[in-house]
């Protein structure tokens, strides 16, 4: 989760796509160049440990863009395959 947040913060769309599960991965990703990601707060996590195959992370990501300050609140699902974690999907609230 933290590595994906960092990828958003530095605009690394390639990493975001590579860490996205193939079953839900978009063909391309357009990041907002005006968005400045300021902070990531992990609220809860379920699973995701060294012996788990799945995990859920609920987080808030604080950002600033042309509309001002904003908060992205998401509950993200991840799966581990062949030793790598992949983002599957998330529910925004």
TrEMBL record:
Question: Where does the YchJ-like middle NTF2-like domain lie?
Answer: 1-90
- Kindly give the InterPro entries that the UniProt entry links to this protein: NTF2-like_dom_sf (IPR032710), YchJ-like_M (IPR048469)
Position of the signal peptide: none
Q: What is this protein called?
A: YchJ-like middle NTF2-like domain-containing protein
